[in-house]
């Protein structure tokens, strides 16, 4: 009880001192404020991005995985792309093989991108930033991302017969055919004339980056014929059920190793990515960013801490007489130490609160400015406040110890 | 017996030189006594006051305060003794400028660990006792010198200490206000408080029932205040005459 009332007295004193020099306190706190605001806003961005990635990938469907010669997900660090380049390509026949010889596989589709094109109708044209991709007719079923808003998707026979048909993303459709139905109209993409048979439903940006509404999807055969045959496919595989995903992967791996002549014991010359593995890669990346940010924040907190150290030393010097009086009246060393340490902690804690508010503000602004989801995780709030108080304690302890060691007679003589 | 000093020595080293601020002082003070310690500057009276107030520890000798040997106590133990046994009244008042009279008087009780309510009640009562009931919420800069010294006296009284220790309590006051404070001390003495008053003014020492005169860190006389004050005046006159003699 005695300790608690002492603590309460010290906190009251600390706020009194803060209040007595508001501008000085605020300037001292700046370092801590910036440090905490950085942590909070950065954590909010990373956490928001992580949630979005998880959600976006979740919509790919729980039972799906992809096969490709290229590594999937988010990649960082040095990657020897030539190694992947040398791997044999995936063709339509591989898709058919998987569909036919893997019992745990429900269906599979092949897809590949051909780059960015300008799409034109008779009256309008888009910027040359529409992503054109070719896919087999099972594509819709295997990605789970998109539905059809209008018209239909192409059939297996249309793929087989290389029909000149196309399905547009909503943005492309809206740009080329404002206020009218695009169905049955013709568009030109890279010199080829194609008939519009469907419009994809609105999807938004995938992973916040790739605009899924600014694409056109053609039958794979048609697209290869028009834009190049040497593309390796990405194969989207759907398992018969969630519990069969692993078995499906094993079957696909076995089939493909045989097909691609991989020697026993040698590593696969292709990649299998699940949503989970992409999420894991992204989480790794966000951890790296977070660690980097933590370093920056730590530096800023150290700078803030030095500010606190400085101001507390000034405070002890200014209040030497007060310390003398307190000691003469019976304050023990621990009590004086506590008073000044708590003052430093209170100072930096208040800085932490201001930084927190600022960080929330930045996170909110980022959401508003970039259309980016931002979520401040509760642990980041706790971490920020703990770190700021910790800084106050670490940098406040030395001035406090100096105050506690003062000789009361000498101290009271100070003017 | 409240205070017993036995052969107290306090030596400082200033540069190469050893200063004997107190050089074998032995005094005994009974409970309820009012004693003044008189001496010119450099006589050692401030050092004696610091030793008596447990603000300083002697180099050698024994100091028994209220039955406890405090000469070799640690810093923290001395802080406790100061808080419980001693009420300080300083020449420069030594009030906390940012706190109200009430908060200043409560301060020693804070370090005793009393609850806010009890502190408040006791501080209010102490301020009433010194005639400042209507000034409790004033800060020191809103009070006159005499009022400030009364706040300091209230602060000294609030812990009900066994010893009131006043260091030149009228030194910063005009003579009328000084007289008021001395009268307050007379009242406190009549009420049974033990008072030790450090002064360089023979006129004030003369008002005390007992005075101890220090010179060069030694007790040179100890007797009724009026008598010691006379000696002190005579000594000063001799010193002044010696100073102007050809």
What is the element layout, followed by pairings?
The complex is a heterodimer of chains A (415) and B (246).
Chain A: H1 2-20, H2 22-58, E1 64-68, H3 81-85, H4 92-101, E2 105-117, E3 119-120, E4 130-135, H5 139-143, E5 148-151, H6 156-160, E6 165-168, H7 170-176, E7 186-189, E8 192-200, E9 205-206, E10 210-211, E11 215-219, H8 220-227, E12 234-239, H9 245-259, E13 271-274, H10 275-318, H11 320-328, H12 333-370, H13 378-405, H14 408-413
Parallel strand pairs in A: 4-11, 6-8
Antiparallel strand pairs in A: 1-12, 1-13, 2-4, 2-12, 3-7, 5-8, 6-11, 7-8, 9-10
Helix pairs in contact in A: 1-12, 2-10, 2-12, 2-13, 4-9, 10-12, 10-13, 12-13
Chain B: E1 3-14, E2 17-29, E3 34-38, H1 45-52, E4 60-65, E5 68-69, H2 75-85, E6 86-89, H3 101-112, H4 116-129, H5 145-157, E7 163-167, H6 175-190, E8 195-199, H7 202-205, E9 210-215, E10 218-224, H8 225-244
Parallel strand pairs in B: 3-8, 3-9, 6-7, 7-8
Antiparallel strand pairs in B: 1-2, 1-4, 4-5, 9-10
Please describe what this structure looks like.
The complex is a heterodimer of chains A (415) and B (246). Chain A is of the alpha+beta class and 415 residues long. Chain A has two domains: 2-55 and 281-413, no CATH class; 88-269, no CATH class. Chain A contains 14 helices and 13 strands. Chain A has helices at residues 2-20, 22-58, 81-85, 92-101, 139-143, 156-160, 170-176, 220-227, 245-259, 275-318, 320-328, 333-370, 378-405, 408-413; strands at residues 64-68, 105-117, 119-120, 130-135, 148-151, 165-168, 186-189, 192-200, 205-206, 210-211, 215-219, 234-239, 271-274. Chain B is an alpha/beta fold and 246 residues long. Helix content of chain B is 40%, strand content 26%. Chain B is built from eight helices and ten strands. Chain B has helices at residues 45-52, 75-85, 101-112, 116-129, 145-157, 175-190, 202-205, 225-244; strands spanning 3-14, 17-29, 34-38, 60-65, 68-69, 86-89, 163-167, 195-199, 210-215, 218-224. The longest helix of chain B is centred in the C-terminal third of the chain and has 20 residues, at 225-244. Classes of the chains: A alpha+beta (415), B alpha/beta (246).
